[in-house]
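Q: Two folds, back to back.
A: First:
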Amino acid sequence: MLKTKSDVVRQPLPFSTFSPSQPGRVYLLPACFAVRGEMAWNAYHLSHKIRLSISSFRTANSLHAFPNSSTTAFPLRCSAFYPIKSSNSRSLSASTTAAAVTTPTTFSWEDVDRASQPEFNPHDSADLRGFFDKIKACNRGSELQSQFLPFVIEDQIVGYIHRSFAENLRSFQNVFVVSKDNCDGGQVTLHRMLKSAEDRTRAVGEVIKCLAEKELIPGIRNELYPVTLLFGAPVFFSLERAAAPYFGIKAYGVHMNGYVEKDGQKFLWIGKRSPVKPTFPGMLDHLVAGGLSHGIACGENLMKECEEEAGIPRSLSSRAIPVGAVSYSDIDGHRFKRDVLFCYDLKLPEGFIPNNQDGEVESFKLIPVRHVANVIKRTHFFKSNCNIVIIDFLFRHGYITPEYFGYLDLLQSLKSGDCS
């Protein structure tokens, strides 16, 4: 067992919280509490579940925006750092950030600047708690898996469907077979007459349209995801992207860290999502990311997304380096997300300025990597799964080292889902 220190007193991280006295406002506050001896290590320990406790909050000091950063020429909405308004009057807590947010969260780049400053919370530089919090936000509901039925095709479990949601499939008897509970708990399968991938895709697609009309599956994307047992394995059929979490299939994506090196320091280009995007509007994001549709390779998909989201020409994007993958498993109501994200790094020229082409990004900003780490630890400004990919970047580029308490637990937690 690793050694612990007998008298460790640490300051945890600023955390966004809801103010009952002023509904509609979200305040960014740092928490503080003391941990001693063995408790300091236990706070980090993971056993397939990530545990985090924050006991009290105190008011944060205002700070100055950091130097040596660049912002693209997009209009910005500036506001005072305290308070931060949320248009849906909800706290951006760990219990909500992994779900698709459908109303914009209002904060400015000035807010991001202030939260990123080292002096904003000078005691959290060697504290991993904020990172654990973000991993936890993407891996909720493991105790609820018994509420889901296996989705079985050709005797292989390819997904999981909530028992209540499965009741909506019973009326489509020519497509789905929902077995009654028996000794194995029941399951959902496709009708035996649907033998080819094409027939399954067509038939299931018609059902998805009906369910979407009843608003049981919102946000139809008209984009197909492959339904497969493992990445690269034969595809059983293709499923509408918006339906993927309702059928609990594995979904894959590509996420790219675009970074710049200057004066011996690394910077990350960060995007701020459009306030009209249907998911996570107005939140921070990678320079480039996208889901992996059926029939396109990871590298080709990344170059396509680079061009659409940041105006990166193929002459540059073709240099992106695949560096691994992260995974998470999140249950939210009837939704079971089992995502694997392929991670890429792209070193960009100092003079490169991203330019969004598809209207999905409001603006970009070039931020020192250490400051990006502070934003992740201290706020809920980032789209939830982006946190995991950036934490992976921090490990690989030496910003998180074995000297931190919980180093190995945090490293292992980057693959909390089935990464296959």
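A: Second:
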Amino acid sequence: MSRPMPRTLPRPLHARLDDATVEPVPLRVSDGTELALHRVYRVDDDRPAVLLLHGHTASADMFVLPETRNLVEALLDAGYEPWLLDWRGSCRLPYNEDGTTYTFDDVALYDIPEAVSLVRARIGTRRLFVVAHCLGALSLSMSMAAGLVPGLAGVVAQGVFMTPRVTVPTRFRMHLSVELMRKRIHRIPVDFRKAGFRSKYTPLFALASLGADCPDPTCQMLHNSAWSIGASLFVHDNLHPRTHDRLADLFGTVPLCVLPHLRRIELAHTVVRWNLSDHRYRALPENALDNADRIDCPVLLLSGSENRLWPDANRLCHDVLKARQPQLDVRYVEVPGYGHVDPIIGRGAALDVFGHIIDFLDERR
């Protein structure tokens, strides 16, 4: 069971947006959790709004990388008003490291719907889109299946959405190896400098280094291991050198409290509710895919061809939704040569990926 989270200040947003105004917007959701929300704008006009949702242990920083042309800049130039949500799994917030427990039910029930409600209260009748990455997109799919975020103009789900799937080796590690680790540790860090050489995490970094081409321990943990589950987050050559050097800032510690829910989701091959007996979560369906008919907006499913975390998950999602819910406006785009997270943070993403996102939004603005 999750418990209320105390008021806290997020780590400052790491952004280079000299020609735009970044406005912090206070957001405390119904279970008492303090989140971080930012509005980014150049002129206070009637632009459509786009809410950006990061992946687990990442943060809104992934959308405002100063060393590359980032997604927020691309959206501003295309005539949109970006809103950046740091939900409770953000590394800019303390919850992944302070012992707080939560599941993705909390994200789907509280964080996303209440952020959407707040943005709508600010933008009035303007159109609102959502662009979501990884477990931000997965949690969004549950919110949509529950009918908690109706009336969106469109959704872009990058990496995974409603039908997660992993490779056999990753499944083995997720269900057995990491479960055994939970007896000794409660979280898995990515920053070797903070973990230290003589720590209980040293064997995890040693395992991640096996067969790695890059000498950086943080890169090994993310690119060669994905927090010890044997997956990979990106194509190494797609990262700008400065992005590579900042990986320990862009991604944070994984709290193992989320693992049981994630395992249940992976076994079901769809997003399922964890809190089945807690009446607070009764608004969420037990199975998101069985309630996909409640999706009431167009959806673009996006993925890199080299996605080694959720391989072919969004292709599968497209095929399943088209077969089971033919009335839905769902399309799938695969970007050649990209992995899981580099479609957002890659140095060439502005040329190779962002156009697909903006074209989809432009069709519906």
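Q: And?
A: The chain has a mean pLDDT of 93.
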